[in-house]
Fold each of these.
Amino acid sequence: MNLRLRFAISFILIALVSIVAVVAFARVNVAREVNTYMFRGGMVGVNVLVSNLEVYYQSNGSWEGVSAQLDTARTNGGHMAGMLGKEGQGAMQQDMLLADMNYEILYDTRRARMGEALSVSEKAGAIVLLGSDSQPVGYLFISGGMQFQPGADRELVDKLNQAAINAGLIAGGLSLLVAGLLGYLILRPVQRLTAAANRIASGDLAERVPVNGNDEMAVLGKAFNTMAQSLETAQINRKAMTADIAHELRTPLAIQRAILEAITDGIYPLDLQQIQLVTQQNQSLTRLVDDLRILALADAGELRLDIDTVDAKGLLSRLVAEFEPTVSERSIQLAIPGVDMNGQWLVRADAFRLGQVIKNLLSNACRYSPDGGAVISQLSREGNWILLSISDSGSGIPAGEEESIFERFFRSDQSRSREDGGTGLGLAIARQLARAHGGDLTAINKPEGGAQFILRLPAA
Ligand code: ADP
């Protein structure tokens, strides 16, 4: 059964249950109200008096004392005024006769016929007062009250019942219309989503749905659009990545081929120098493939980290010491100032991968610092995090590229980085690794110049 039909049926069922309940209650109450109105004094406003008189008789077992009570009620509206009921306050202005079950008058508002019997016509028009066993215990005659013959209520009750059924049918018809309309309105956004999802499935990733308001459908629409956006971005990235990989592979392959062809054609001699040139290109290809493999593993969530408690301070000092000889001839100063060497700088990390990230940051910092510059590494604690920052004295990251430098194959200066052997994957991998540790890697430009990379790691 489709959703629209289900909605419509639910609405109609709810409407039908309400309508049937209303009609049924109306029918039951109509019969009772008509009876009270016609035969129990309702029309002349003494229905409360009638039931109070009955209660009076049922609790006293006789009519004794009733006339005194009625007098009090009539003259001073004392506590027995309640006997007349709200609607009955005016009823005592009418002439009234109360007779016992033998039609002998017990109470007469005019005080003229006490002890007499009700006349035949009065008997016919009197309201029968019932005892607890529903047997007549007395009669109340209101002069001027309209008189109905038994059974006269039938026709009116039937008409009122018919009116209730007609109202029910009209309401049922209207609810059917409303159910159809509501079903259409509620499901229209779902249909739009379905159509958009189908278009996305067939490859149109630019497809979006209009989002209005803040209701659940709007939230679903927004989630759908976000999903479509990520799919589109992923597709763009994948295409760019494939193009970038092809591009990166082409250069070393072309160089290798040129050298090999030149040797084959006898242009270059087959000597160690040529072989070293080919080996260099082979190494950069190997590095690229290794980097790509790490990224692919991280993307697939399959990068296995051997997490342990690592002394970040010890690791940092060791790596800085390893770097020193490589930059000494450029007079770059490598320093770890202000770090409390006796303090505990323990992090939860894979020592090998963390080392890889730090090496990458140190090598970038040295590469972008001028000769005689300084590369400063620092450790600090922020709540449950250990922050490892590496800043340099280079020209900093070009404005607006603080995030882009973490993208794959991003290079601010294309030619220079490639000559340096950079693949443009170093920072992308470093950030992936930081995030795989539950931390992060960000970059800023220091106000005094130079870039600062901050690696955030969970403290042990
Ligand atoms: P590469 O291997 O080409 O160096 P990276 O991912 O390590 O690639 O860096 C990407 C880009 O980020 C670099 O091309 C460079 O433009 C920029 N970058 C990285 N480190 C620094 C730094 N310390 N100072 C300024 N720019 C930097």
Amino acid sequence: MNRTLVKDALASTQALDAIFLQGWVRTRRDAKAFSFVELNDGSCLKGIQVIVDATLPDYAAVTRASTGASIAVRGKLVPSQGQGQKWEIVAEKFEVLGEADATYPLQKKGHTLEFLREIAHLRPRSNLFGAVFRVRSRLAYAVHQFFQEKSFCYVHTPIITASDAEGAGDMFRVTTLDLAQPPKTEDGAIDSTQDFFAKKTFLTVSGQLEAEIFATALSNVYTFGPTFRAENSHTSRHASEFWMIEPEMAFCDLQGDMALAEEFVKYLIRDAKQHCAADLEFFSKFVDKDLLARLDFVLERPFQRCSYTEAIAILTASGRTWEHPVTWGDNLQSEHERFLSEEHFKCPVTVYNYPRAIKAFYMRKNDGDAPDRQTVAAMDLLVPGIGEIIGGSQREERLDVLREGMALHHLDEKSYWWYLDLRRYGTVPHAGFGLGFERMLMFVTGVANIRDVIPFARTPGTAEF
Ligand code: 4AD
Ligand code: MG
């Protein structure tokens, strides 16, 4: 007999004479004539109650069905006598597949998130992490749906790369050289020509540059894959390995880029509300009580837009004392970003036209700025509770201006020869952005730490599992 998932059993429109379920015991309660076993299989938040009559030949197995044990149950699906669920199972056959003794860490009592991180191999079996990873899976699907419905082409950009897409230098080195005795050149430097790829290689920080190659051929493309940053950031919003979605559009400017970013964020929220309603309700009960109201609020209102220069004026006029005082030309820190979205605009806000000197080399220089106030067509989408969730820009399509930007950022043109070729042959205005998938998940679930929305977090000093 085929297995039925708990989610489908609970959604049944009729009683069933025969049903077969498999899963893990959440709780067991023994009464005189019956035992009540809650079976959860991760297909949804809820478990289903299984009633095992003490007269059943298999009843002896029930005493071995402790919290965490895996079980298989055959029986009938009948209307539930108890409250809170429509259906329950009356067992006819009850089998324990794998026992779990009293050392099983996920007993009924609540655990701290810190403790659950230490048992990342078991935490998917908890209500919270089951819900987080179901939402993660659903939103990954929605990402593809959003772009595929718009005829964007999905491009697999490389994970091992020789170029620094952000020009920021925080990359993990990839090498097969013997670290104890690396080959040296005559002047004593490590000889990378003898390395696996015959040059220095790294884990990618972004698929953008390669996405640009494809956008200037297939028009609208997107990437969705893991990216890596070797920044020594110890915050609740930074991971060393995270997933990024990067659309890239030919014949598109900053306005079109910002519009797509806003539409995309709203689409993902709407999709989660529609397809993960029970999980979101769980988060709003146990993680963040304002979650559902905030998501509705974000869906209903247009996002605000404000230039970097206006943002600096707002921050200065606020009268606040900042931990990092801010004047024109400075990077916005998390405290500034959160003030703008949480306190000033009280909704998501896209800040655009940042100073050229603090942004990446590939961003398009705006025309008509004063020489000491040069800006680029960059944008960051800031959301309440998190700050930056999306970073993007219109790209510099003019060869001479791009080369000047690379010189400004002290980048070697030779390593970017193919990137420059895109401007030599059939260059077009184009734009794109990157959405940090984990930051989006934090926003949609209310979960406050990035370590708790990725199955196995990689952060400085941690790479267990
Ligand atoms: O702003 P970033 O660095 O932009 C880029 O990488 C561009 N190449 C994107 C593009 O235009 N195609 O990163 C984009 C987003 C950030 O807004 C943030 O959401 C997320 O990626 N992000 C991180 N998420 C988790 N941990 C980190 N260390 C992150 N760094 C960036
Ligand atoms: Mg950024």
